[in-house]
Amino acid sequence: MSMRLHAIINERAGSVLDQDLAAIAQSIKEPFLRAGHEITVEFCEPKKLVPLIEAAAKRDIDAIIVGGGDGTVRSGARIAIENSKTLGILPLGTLNRMARDLNIPLDIASAAEALATSKADVIDVASLNGKIFLCNSLIGLPPEYSAERQRVRGRPWRERLVGYTRAIKTILSSRKRLRITIDDGAEQKPLRVISLAVANNAYCEEPGLGLVRPHLNKGELAVYASRHRSGWAMVRAMIRAVLGRWKGDPHLMQFRGHDITVRVARNWLRVSNDGEVETYATPLRYKSHPKALKILVPERA
Question: Alpha carbon of 201 to those of 232, 256, 258, 271: distances in Å?
Fold first, then answer.
Protein backbone atom coordinates (compact mmCIF):
# COMPACT_ATOMS: atom_id res chain seq x y z
CA MET A 1 0.00 0.00 0.00
CA SER A 2 1.48 3.34 -1.05
CA MET A 3 1.94 6.15 1.47
CA ARG A 4 2.44 9.90 1.40
CA LEU A 5 5.33 10.87 3.67
CA HIS A 6 7.14 14.02 4.73
CA ALA A 7 10.69 13.70 6.10
CA ILE A 8 12.16 16.50 8.22
CA ILE A 9 15.87 16.22 8.95
CA ASN A 10 18.00 18.07 11.49
CA GLU A 11 20.78 19.47 9.28
CA ARG A 12 23.03 19.83 12.35
CA ALA A 13 22.79 16.15 13.30
CA GLY A 14 26.17 14.46 13.41
CA SER A 15 25.49 12.01 10.58
CA VAL A 16 24.67 14.74 8.04
CA LEU A 17 26.75 17.67 9.32
CA ASP A 18 28.97 19.11 6.56
CA GLN A 19 27.68 16.48 4.10
CA ASP A 20 26.10 16.96 0.67
CA LEU A 21 22.45 17.43 1.67
CA ALA A 22 21.16 17.02 -1.89
CA ALA A 23 22.86 13.61 -2.15
CA ILE A 24 21.52 12.59 1.25
CA ALA A 25 18.00 13.66 0.27
CA GLN A 26 18.23 11.54 -2.88
CA SER A 27 19.47 8.51 -0.90
CA ILE A 28 16.42 8.87 1.36
CA LYS A 29 13.94 9.36 -1.49
CA GLU A 30 15.06 6.54 -3.78
CA PRO A 31 13.92 3.51 -1.74
CA PHE A 32 10.55 5.12 -0.99
CA LEU A 33 9.95 5.95 -4.65
CA ARG A 34 10.92 2.41 -5.68
CA ALA A 35 8.37 1.10 -3.17
CA GLY A 36 5.64 3.24 -4.74
CA HIS A 37 5.45 5.95 -2.05
CA GLU A 38 5.40 9.72 -2.34
CA ILE A 39 7.93 11.51 -0.15
CA THR A 40 9.17 15.04 0.48
CA VAL A 41 12.53 15.52 2.21
CA GLU A 42 13.28 18.78 4.03
CA PHE A 43 16.37 19.84 6.00
CA CYS A 44 16.29 22.54 8.67
CA GLU A 45 18.14 24.08 11.59
CA PRO A 46 17.42 22.58 15.04
CA LYS A 47 15.34 25.56 16.21
CA LYS A 48 12.96 25.10 13.25
CA LEU A 49 12.43 21.35 13.72
CA VAL A 50 9.37 21.44 15.96
CA PRO A 51 7.46 24.12 13.97
CA LEU A 52 8.12 22.25 10.71
CA ILE A 53 7.09 18.89 12.17
CA GLU A 54 3.91 20.49 13.53
CA ALA A 55 3.15 22.00 10.11
CA ALA A 56 3.77 18.69 8.34
CA ALA A 57 1.48 16.86 10.77
CA LYS A 58 -1.44 19.05 9.69
CA ARG A 59 -1.06 18.12 6.03
CA ASP A 60 -2.80 15.30 4.19
CA ILE A 61 -0.01 12.76 4.67
CA ASP A 62 0.18 9.27 6.12
CA ALA A 63 3.44 9.51 8.04
CA ILE A 64 6.02 11.96 9.35
CA ILE A 65 9.65 10.87 9.26
CA VAL A 66 12.02 12.68 11.60
CA GLY A 67 15.79 12.56 11.24
CA GLY A 68 17.86 13.44 14.28
CA GLY A 69 18.75 12.31 17.78
CA ASP A 70 16.56 10.99 20.58
CA GLY A 71 15.34 14.48 21.48
CA THR A 72 14.11 15.06 17.93
CA VAL A 73 12.41 11.66 17.91
CA ARG A 74 10.69 12.46 21.20
CA SER A 75 9.33 15.74 19.79
CA GLY A 76 8.19 13.95 16.64
CA ALA A 77 6.38 11.32 18.69
CA ARG A 78 4.49 13.94 20.68
CA ILE A 79 3.37 15.74 17.54
CA ALA A 80 2.45 12.49 15.77
CA ILE A 81 0.25 11.44 18.70
CA GLU A 82 -1.44 14.84 18.91
CA ASN A 83 -2.27 14.74 15.19
CA SER A 84 -3.02 11.00 14.81
CA LYS A 85 -0.12 10.49 12.41
CA THR A 86 2.33 7.62 11.98
CA LEU A 87 5.97 8.30 12.90
CA GLY A 88 9.10 7.11 11.13
CA ILE A 89 12.65 7.45 12.47
CA LEU A 90 15.93 8.14 10.67
CA PRO A 91 18.56 7.75 13.43
CA LEU A 92 21.13 10.56 13.23
CA GLY A 93 22.04 11.03 16.90
CA THR A 94 24.64 9.63 19.26
CA LEU A 95 22.75 6.91 21.13
CA ASN A 96 19.67 6.41 18.94
CA ARG A 97 17.89 4.46 21.69
CA MET A 98 14.51 4.19 19.99
CA ALA A 99 15.94 3.19 16.62
CA ARG A 100 17.97 0.40 18.23
CA ASP A 101 14.89 -0.99 19.98
CA LEU A 102 13.01 -0.96 16.66
CA ASN A 103 15.92 -2.63 14.81
CA ILE A 104 16.28 0.34 12.44
CA PRO A 105 19.76 0.40 10.82
CA LEU A 106 21.93 3.27 12.02
CA ASP A 107 23.24 4.15 8.56
CA ILE A 108 20.90 6.74 7.00
CA ALA A 109 20.65 5.07 3.57
CA SER A 110 20.05 1.63 5.11
CA ALA A 111 17.49 3.12 7.50
CA ALA A 112 15.60 4.64 4.56
CA GLU A 113 15.66 1.28 2.77
CA ALA A 114 14.25 -0.42 5.87
CA LEU A 115 11.52 2.19 6.40
CA ALA A 116 10.44 2.10 2.75
CA THR A 117 9.25 -1.50 3.19
CA SER A 118 8.19 -1.19 6.84
CA LYS A 119 4.80 -1.79 8.42
CA ALA A 120 2.94 0.47 10.84
CA ASP A 121 2.69 -0.87 14.39
CA VAL A 122 1.60 0.59 17.72
CA ILE A 123 3.86 0.99 20.75
CA ASP A 124 3.59 2.43 24.25
CA VAL A 125 4.80 5.81 25.38
CA ALA A 126 5.36 6.95 28.95
CA SER A 127 4.94 10.38 30.49
CA LEU A 128 6.43 12.36 33.35
CA ASN A 129 4.13 15.06 34.74
CA GLY A 130 2.24 14.97 31.44
CA LYS A 131 5.26 15.21 29.08
CA ILE A 132 5.97 12.08 27.06
CA PHE A 133 9.17 10.10 26.67
CA LEU A 134 9.83 6.96 24.67
CA CYS A 135 12.76 5.16 26.26
CA ASN A 136 13.74 6.13 29.79
CA SER A 137 13.74 8.82 32.44
CA LEU A 138 16.73 9.20 34.77
CA ILE A 139 17.27 11.04 38.05
CA GLY A 140 20.30 11.24 40.32
CA LEU A 141 23.79 11.06 38.83
CA PRO A 142 23.08 10.21 35.14
CA PRO A 143 21.58 13.65 34.32
CA GLU A 144 24.97 15.16 35.22
CA TYR A 145 26.48 13.60 32.10
CA SER A 146 23.42 14.34 29.94
CA ALA A 147 23.49 18.00 30.99
CA GLU A 148 27.18 18.34 30.05
CA ARG A 149 26.52 16.61 26.72
CA GLN A 150 23.79 19.16 25.99
CA ARG A 151 26.07 22.05 27.02
CA VAL A 152 28.90 21.12 24.64
CA ARG A 153 26.73 19.93 21.75
CA GLY A 154 28.02 21.46 18.52
CA ARG A 155 31.23 22.75 20.16
CA PRO A 156 34.74 21.86 18.89
CA TRP A 157 35.78 18.29 19.69
CA ARG A 158 38.47 19.35 22.20
CA GLU A 159 35.91 21.31 24.22
CA ARG A 160 33.49 18.37 24.07
CA LEU A 161 36.21 16.01 25.28
CA VAL A 162 37.03 18.28 28.24
CA GLY A 163 33.34 18.53 29.13
CA TYR A 164 32.74 14.78 28.93
CA THR A 165 35.84 14.08 31.01
CA ARG A 166 34.75 16.57 33.68
CA ALA A 167 31.26 15.02 33.86
CA ILE A 168 32.65 11.48 34.13
CA LYS A 169 35.03 12.49 36.92
CA THR A 170 32.11 14.09 38.80
CA ILE A 171 30.03 10.94 38.47
CA LEU A 172 32.81 8.54 39.46
CA SER A 173 33.79 10.51 42.56
CA SER A 174 30.25 11.16 43.80
CA ARG A 175 28.81 9.54 46.90
CA LYS A 176 25.72 11.73 46.97
CA ARG A 177 22.53 9.74 47.39
CA LEU A 178 18.97 10.96 47.12
CA ARG A 179 16.19 10.14 49.58
CA ILE A 180 13.06 9.21 47.65
CA THR A 181 9.77 7.44 48.17
CA ILE A 182 8.36 5.35 45.34
CA ASP A 183 4.57 4.97 45.36
CA ASP A 184 3.09 2.44 42.93
CA GLY A 185 -0.44 2.77 44.28
CA ALA A 186 -0.20 -0.38 46.35
CA GLU A 187 2.88 0.32 48.46
CA GLN A 188 5.22 3.17 49.37
CA LYS A 189 8.92 2.29 49.27
CA PRO A 190 11.37 4.71 50.98
CA LEU A 191 14.85 4.43 49.45
CA ARG A 192 18.22 6.16 49.27
CA VAL A 193 19.46 5.99 45.67
CA ILE A 194 22.41 7.25 43.70
CA SER A 195 20.30 6.98 40.55
CA LEU A 196 16.82 5.96 39.49
CA ALA A 197 15.70 4.90 36.02
CA VAL A 198 12.10 4.59 34.87
CA ALA A 199 11.87 2.72 31.55
CA ASN A 200 8.97 2.59 29.14
CA ASN A 201 8.79 -1.24 29.26
CA ALA A 202 11.51 -3.40 30.78
CA TYR A 203 15.01 -4.08 29.54
CA CYS A 204 16.16 -7.54 28.61
CA GLU A 205 17.95 -9.29 31.47
CA GLU A 206 19.62 -11.98 29.38
CA PRO A 207 23.37 -11.85 28.61
CA GLY A 208 24.10 -9.78 25.52
CA LEU A 209 25.52 -6.47 24.40
CA GLY A 210 23.47 -3.33 24.90
CA LEU A 211 20.40 -2.31 26.87
CA VAL A 212 17.51 -3.51 24.73
CA ARG A 213 13.78 -3.55 25.40
CA PRO A 214 12.45 -6.75 23.80
CA HIS A 215 8.81 -5.62 24.15
CA LEU A 216 7.55 -2.12 23.41
CA ASN A 217 3.83 -2.66 24.00
CA LYS A 218 3.50 -4.43 27.37
CA GLY A 219 1.90 -1.34 28.90
CA GLU A 220 4.16 -1.15 31.94
CA LEU A 221 6.85 0.98 33.52
CA ALA A 222 10.02 -0.69 34.76
CA VAL A 223 11.78 1.05 37.67
CA TYR A 224 15.47 0.42 38.42
CA ALA A 225 16.72 1.88 41.70
CA SER A 226 20.50 1.97 42.19
CA ARG A 227 21.34 1.92 45.91
CA HIS A 228 25.08 1.68 45.26
CA ARG A 229 27.20 3.80 47.59
CA SER A 230 29.40 5.51 45.00
CA GLY A 231 29.52 6.60 41.42
CA TRP A 232 32.20 3.98 40.72
CA ALA A 233 29.92 1.23 41.99
CA MET A 234 26.99 2.55 39.97
CA VAL A 235 29.06 2.69 36.77
CA ARG A 236 30.28 -0.88 37.28
CA ALA A 237 26.64 -1.93 37.71
CA MET A 238 25.71 -0.08 34.52
CA ILE A 239 28.43 -1.94 32.61
CA ARG A 240 27.08 -5.23 33.92
CA ALA A 241 23.58 -4.15 32.88
CA VAL A 242 24.76 -3.30 29.35
CA LEU A 243 26.24 -6.81 29.17
CA GLY A 244 22.98 -8.28 30.48
CA ARG A 245 24.65 -9.48 33.69
CA TRP A 246 22.79 -7.56 36.36
CA LYS A 247 20.85 -10.43 37.91
CA GLY A 248 21.61 -10.91 41.57
CA ASP A 249 22.94 -7.37 42.18
CA PRO A 250 21.84 -6.76 45.80
CA HIS A 251 22.09 -2.98 45.36
CA LEU A 252 19.76 -2.82 42.36
CA MET A 253 16.04 -2.92 43.08
CA GLN A 254 13.44 -3.40 40.35
CA PHE A 255 9.72 -2.62 40.31
CA ARG A 256 6.96 -2.75 37.73
CA GLY A 257 3.86 -0.60 37.51
CA HIS A 258 1.52 1.45 35.35
CA ASP A 259 1.35 4.65 37.41
CA ILE A 260 4.30 5.46 39.67
CA THR A 261 4.95 8.53 41.80
CA VAL A 262 8.42 9.50 43.05
CA ARG A 263 8.47 11.87 46.02
CA VAL A 264 11.51 13.81 47.25
CA ALA A 265 12.02 16.47 49.91
CA ARG A 266 12.55 19.32 47.44
CA ASN A 267 10.38 21.38 45.13
CA TRP A 268 12.07 20.49 41.85
CA LEU A 269 14.41 17.91 40.37
CA ARG A 270 16.60 17.70 37.29
CA VAL A 271 15.59 14.76 35.10
CA SER A 272 17.02 13.29 31.89
CA ASN A 273 14.23 12.10 29.57
CA ASP A 274 15.52 10.24 26.49
CA GLY A 275 18.84 12.04 27.03
CA GLU A 276 17.34 15.56 27.27
CA VAL A 277 17.77 17.24 30.66
CA GLU A 278 14.79 19.21 32.01
CA THR A 279 13.69 20.51 35.40
CA TYR A 280 10.44 19.17 36.85
CA ALA A 281 8.32 20.16 39.81
CA THR A 282 7.88 17.39 42.35
CA PRO A 283 6.40 14.93 42.95
CA LEU A 284 7.35 13.15 39.75
CA ARG A 285 4.30 11.36 38.37
CA TYR A 286 5.05 8.67 35.81
CA LYS A 287 2.37 7.05 33.69
CA SER A 288 2.28 4.38 30.97
CA HIS A 289 0.19 5.07 27.86
CA PRO A 290 -0.30 1.70 26.15
CA LYS A 291 -0.20 1.60 22.36
CA ALA A 292 -0.40 5.39 22.07
CA LEU A 293 2.05 5.83 19.18
CA LYS A 294 1.70 4.49 15.64
CA ILE A 295 5.18 3.94 14.24
CA LEU A 296 6.92 2.47 11.20
CA VAL A 297 8.73 -0.75 12.09
CA PRO A 298 11.08 -2.56 9.67
CA GLU A 299 10.23 -6.12 8.78
CA ARG A 300 12.50 -8.53 10.61
CA ALA A 301 14.87 -10.57 8.52
Answer: 27, 9, 10, 18
DSSP state of 271: E
Whole-prediction pTM value?
Answer: 0.86
pLDDT digits (tens, 9 = 90+) for 92-148: 988 899 999 999 999 999 999 999 999 999 999 999 999 999 999 999 865 555 555
Question: Which domain does 137 fall in, by range?
Answer: 132-290
Q: How far apart are CA 252 and CA 26, in angstroms?
A: 47
Domain total of the chain? 2
Which contiguous run of DSSP H or E holds residue 190?
A: strand 188-193
| Judgement on whether residues 69 and 14 belong to the same structural domain of the protein | yes
Are residue 141 and residue 103 in the same domain, yes or no? no
Judgement on whether residues 182 and 269 belong to the same structural domain of the protein: yes
The reported pLDDT for the residue numbered 36 is: 97
Q: Is residue 122 situated within a structural domain? A: no
Q: Please indicate, yes or no, if residue 127 is contained in any of the structural domains.
A: no
Give the integer Cα–Cα distance in Å for 225 and 191.
8
Q: What is the pLDDT of residues 184-207, one digit of tens each?
A: 988 999 998 988 999 999 988 766
Could you tell me the sign of the dihedral formed by the alpha carbons of 256, 259, 264, 266, in that order?
positive
